[in-house]
Amino acid sequence: MRFGMVHRVMTDALAALGVIALVASGQFNRYVSWAILISLGLALVVRESWQRHPALRHLDTGILLAVIAVQVVRIVATDASVLDVLVEFAAALQIIRLATRKGAAHDQQVIVLALLHLIAGTVLGGGMGYGLCFLGVLVVAPGALVLSHLRREVEGNYRQGARDRTGLPVDVPRILRSRRVVGRSFLAVTCLLSVPIFVFTALLFVIFPRVGLSLLLLNRGHTGRMIGFSGKVDLGAVGVLRSDPKLAMRVEIPELPEPPPPRLTMHLRGTALDAYDGRTWTQSETFKRPTESDGGLVPIERYPDPAVDPVMRIDLEPIDPPVIFLPPNATGLRLKHRGQLGVDANAMAQRGPEGELRYQPTDDRGLVYDVFLSRKRSPTFQRLPAAERRRYLDLPRDLPSRVVELAQQWTQGVDRPADRARAIQEHLRTEYRYDLASPSGADPQPLDHFLFESKRGHCEFYSTAMAILLRAVDVPTRNVTGFVGGTYNRFGRFYAVRQGDAHSWVEVYLDGEGWMTFDPTPPADAAPKSELVGAWAYLRDFIEATSQRWDRHVVGYDLNQQVGLLQTLTSRYRRSGSSSDLSLSRPRILAVAAVALALGGGLLYWRFRRTRRGREERRADAGRTPSAILATALYEGLEAAMLVQGVPRPPSLPPLRHAEALELADHPLAREILTLTQVYLRARFGGATLTEDDSRDFERRVKALRGAERRARAASDSGLAASP
């Protein structure tokens, strides 16, 4: 492996990892991220010969001034964030340096910028993408730093006019092309330095006391928010989300059966709407007020009992508006921002109309919260004041009369409100077809067209139809939007809820029971749509589970987890000390044995390769006689003398051919060079023996060759001095 190539590859890898860590933080929008990545790729493929071209001497300065001017204009003329502009400038500075670098001094600047980018990525993001970049930097950085320092020393000596042992100037290009400076052992050792560095860093991370991220004033995510679940829903514009696979939340369910169901319907409620004008659902009230809170617990209709109430944990991605999603039997919450270490007492929730809850986002990292569930599976909302009952029975003024007649027809002979709801739900499920591209959305009366003409529609048509038909037979209802459920992640043991699982259903008020959930959409069409089997499903589940563990145990590692870890280790130590049975469980024994075998096998293989390489080198040396080895050393001195005389031998030209070419060109030293070359060839390949006298004679004649130019120059100078 050539020294210069290895150094360039490792430096480029370190720079790329730093820039990717910035991009992975989510600080840039999609277009800026792609522009940075494409520019980075172009900068990495620029050839060194182009970088040293005289016409491009000041290119880096010109580009840098242009970038500064553009960023200043963005700050002054637009509403661009100063932080965004600074981070983009840092990435651009690295790309400019990569494209215009000249020598080891610039490579060291590249390394410093890469490390600064890694630090910035820690503050700005800290997600799974950053974690992979961090591990890559740990592996690459030691080798890149050592090689950069070595190249800097070589180029520094060259500029100072240093000479080698033969008295010749240091040939830097030849050193960079050399395959002897950097070998596999060197790379292996430098990369393995990442192991103790990682262990030391991990120990500091686990042991050092946790502090809040509020100390980092720049700590805010920029991951992009989901949009939806506002207080207004147009009946003709809903349904396109069913194909969006982006993760919306991770839900951990208590007391799951074994095996857990691959898909689970949860009806996670986000927003409820009570007013329908014939096409659009809205909220007739718009108030917002802070909820009560006690020690981080937020009640819904009563305070939860953390000691006995089952707990569902939800890891919510950022969403706008910042709605909190609840299952139908929630009693209370415990809030925590994803980017906040420890319990955040300021993560207050706001209560809105129709039981809607929202949180106050401090950044764009989403929210992690625990939902306490009713042990009796009682509905979350149980009250409807008599004064408010009327608005849940209101019908649009221009509602066609045949809609009311259809409701009466479907509920004929049914008296109980719950039975009426089940009857209408069954008719909708069995007599209508699910269709995301329903033609009813373009009709002036979309509900009437859906019920009597197309009989095709998405979930919003089904929920609207059920809500209005029940109101027509004097049953209070409201329309609800949220997520229907999720698919089970086999690695993380949580249910992944995606944006495509957005759904709409109905809440029906039943006297004595409360607001009950009904879903008129056919179950097969309302169920989560994510794939469950196949290579892509396994890879997707693994990546999402790994990302969850990273967010929870690294990004979200707080004082509570630190104390819990210490207590766990202490209790295990006490149990092992007080118990006479110190044996490990069988799985742990197998795991330890597997790791030991892997390490032992790797060590034996490395030892075998090293021994084999040593044997091959000794065998190669054994095939060369002492005279051949001596002849090689003597010919190196002859090559140095030819270089002094201005007739160096090209690496691609054999020694004998080079000497014969000099003789054909009538060079004054050709005869002596040819004679010495023949001596070298007879001893090196012909089996001839070189005595000590032969060696001294060879060295004397080489010295005479090197002094031929000095004697000629001295004679010329003396002739000039003697002339009048």
TrEMBL record:
Query: Which Pfam families did the record assign?
Result: DUF4129, TgpA_N, Transglut_core
Q: Which domain of life is it from?
A: Bacteria
Q: Where is the Transglutaminase-like domain?
A: 451-522
Classification via PANTHER family: PROTEIN-GLUTAMINE GAMMA-GLUTAMYLTRANSFERASE (PTHR42736:SF1)
Asked whether the UniProt record includes Hydrolase among its keywords, one would answer no
Protein name, per record: TransglutaminaseTgpA domain-containing protein
Residue intervals passing through the bilayer:
134-150, 186-208, 589-608
Q: Does the keyword Ribosomal protein apply?
A: no
Record-linked SUPFAM superfamilies = Cysteine proteinases (SSF54001)
Q: Any idea which UniProt keywords this protein has?
A: Membrane, Transmembrane, Transmembrane helix
Q: Which organism is it from?
A: Sorangium atrum
